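Batch manifest line 219
LIGAND: 1,6-di-O-phosphono-alpha-D-glucopyranose
JOB: complex structure
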Amino acid sequence: MQAVVFDLDGVLTDTADYHFKAWKNLAASIGIQIDHTFNEQLKGISRMDSLERILEYGGRSNDFTLIEREQLAEQKNEEYRLLIASITPRELLPGIASFLRELKDEGLKIGLASASKNGSSILERLHIADNFDTIVDPAKLSKGKPDPEIFRTAADQLNLLPSECAGIEDAVAGIQSINGAGIFSVGVGVPPEAKADWNVNATAELTLGELMAHFKAKK
Ligand code: G16
Ligand code: MG
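JOB STATUS: finished
ARTIFACT:
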């Protein structure tokens, strides 16, 4: 194993609540009420696809032109950016700082495969941007998770084969993307049906020793 590719939301930090707040207010402004249960569906899903799901849920799929939908997505993003402006390294999920250090110490490469167009600025605010050898630009992808494109692109950008990488995700769509790319998958709190190669309950359980052992056992 030569590299670990990380998802962002739910693996490095938990921005799901900020996304939820911003989507909830946006949805309410057009008469749609969403709750936490519905919000689970939006994890790992791109901004425009999230909006489509909300409009469909509220029965308003045909009520907005493309330009209006882009404005709604932008309105959500403006509120989201205000909410994430105050993120600090304290919001790194448990064990992530030491896990990244272990990977660096052992000379492994580190990549980011997040659907978020705000990924780079969040890494900066968490003070971990310097650890990343590559970041996939989600704006350049033709398909979002669960399509394998994002994780396959991360391996390509690192000049590695998928079989030389591991990927870590907290969403079912994300595990499907990793598995489809032919990368060793690690699920953080995902249901067994997602078929991750190794499951942990929380990020605090991530250590290089354990990851290596599971990676080698699969070969
Ligand atoms: C994250 C979140 C999603 C969000 C997406 C796009 O995915 O889980 O809820 O819709 O990014 O974010 P943005 O609107 O900032 O571009 P991931 O892949 O990091 O879990
Ligand atoms: Mg995620």
